[in-house]
């Protein structure tokens, strides 16, 4: 089997391992006093970790030249979507008992849910348009659309920050990682603009 396929299988198994663990722990009743809450917290955490992994690919390729990671970025992104859907469904089923009117009132009442919902909608839109066919069909707009992943991560972090009751540790840690992953993109964009400006200035000079 070619190395890319091996890596795909390994990433698939690693990505499914948290899901397998939480399913096993649920069936064997190892989730403590409040299993519903444990499942919601666990799947929420794996959503944000998967986003961290996905957005770490470009920096790792640029700084460490780990180009082999690039073809696996899509699968990592799809895991973020997968865990986000597990998170949402476990909240709807185990906490709200599928009472959708309660969901909409929570959406309006609790700012952390109001911030999390658009993040999930973005991840769904990105998952649906992640195929080669959609890439071709959307052309340049595909890249514009997929930049929304930065907003999804930011909203995910706001969602966590807004839930803090006692310890700020996770919220601060996730905030530092989010700031690093978004900050590096902002720096690359600034560098690109500087280069473009310098090139335009050179062209102007040569014309005068
Ligand atoms: C409609 C969308 C969402 C809903 C309804 C939702 C709901 C919840 C709920 C009810 C909790 C547990 C709060 C508690 O009782 O302590 C939670 C925790 C969490 N959620 Fe979400 N969530 C949503 C979207 C997201 C998204 C998009 C992310 C990640 C990008 C995310 C990441 C997390 C994390 C990391 C936690 C655990 C926070 C902690 O450790 O205290 N959630 N979410």
UniProtKB/TrEMBL annotation:
Its main location: membrane. It is found in: Cell membrane; Membrane. The chain crosses the membrane at residues 41-64, 76-98, 110-128, 148-165, 171-188. InterPro entries: Fe3_Rdtase_TM_dom (IPR013130), MsrQ-like (IPR022837). Binds 1 heme b (iron(II)-protoporphyrin IX) group per subunit. Binds 1 FMN per subunit. Its cofactor is heme b; FMN. It holds the Pfam family Ferric_reduct. Residues 47-156 form the Ferric oxidoreductase domain. Keywords: Cell membrane, Electron transport, Flavoprotein, FMN, Heme, Iron, Membrane, Metal-binding, Transmembrane, Transmembrane helix, Transport. The keyword Transcription does not apply. It is a multi-pass membrane protein. The keyword Nucleotide-binding does not apply. Belongs to the MsrQ family. Part of the MsrPQ system that repairs oxidized periplasmic proteins containing methionine sulfoxide residues (Met-O), using respiratory chain electrons. Thus protects these proteins from oxidative-stress damage caused by reactive species of oxygen and chlorine generated by the host defense mechanisms. MsrPQ is essential for the maintenance of envelope integrity under bleach stress, rescuing a wide series of structurally unrelated periplasmic proteins from methionine oxidation. Heterodimer of a catalytic subunit (MsrP) and a heme-binding subunit (MsrQ). This is Protein-methionine-sulfoxide reductase heme-binding subunit MsrQ. It comes from Gilvimarinus japonicus. The gene is msrQ.
């Amino acid at each position: 089997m070619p190395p890319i396929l091996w890596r795909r299988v390994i990433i698939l198994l690693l990505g499914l391992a948290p899901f397998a663990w939480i399913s096993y722990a649920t069936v064997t009743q190892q989730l403590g006093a409040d299993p519903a809450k444990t499942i919601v917290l666990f799947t929420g955490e794996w959503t944000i970790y998967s986003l961290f992994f996905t957005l770490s690919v470009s920096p790792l390729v640029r700084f460490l030249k780990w180009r082999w990671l690039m073809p696996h970025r899509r699968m990592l992104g799809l895991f973020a979507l997968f865990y986000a859907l597990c998170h949402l469904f476990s909240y709807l089923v185990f906490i709200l008992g599928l009472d959708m009117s309660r969901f909409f009132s929570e959406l309006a009442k609790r700012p952390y849910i109001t911030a999390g919902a658009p993040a999930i909608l973005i991840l769904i839109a990105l998952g649906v348009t992640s195929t080669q066919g959609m890439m071709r069909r959307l052309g340049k707009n595909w890249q514009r659309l997929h930049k929304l992943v930065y907003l999804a991560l930011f909203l995910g972090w706001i969602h966590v920050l807004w839930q803090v009751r006692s310890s700020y540790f996770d919220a601060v840690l996730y905030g530092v990682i989010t700031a690093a992953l978004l900050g590096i993109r902002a720096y690359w964009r600034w560098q690109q603009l500087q280069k473009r400006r310098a090139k335009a200035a050179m062209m102007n000079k040569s014309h005068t």
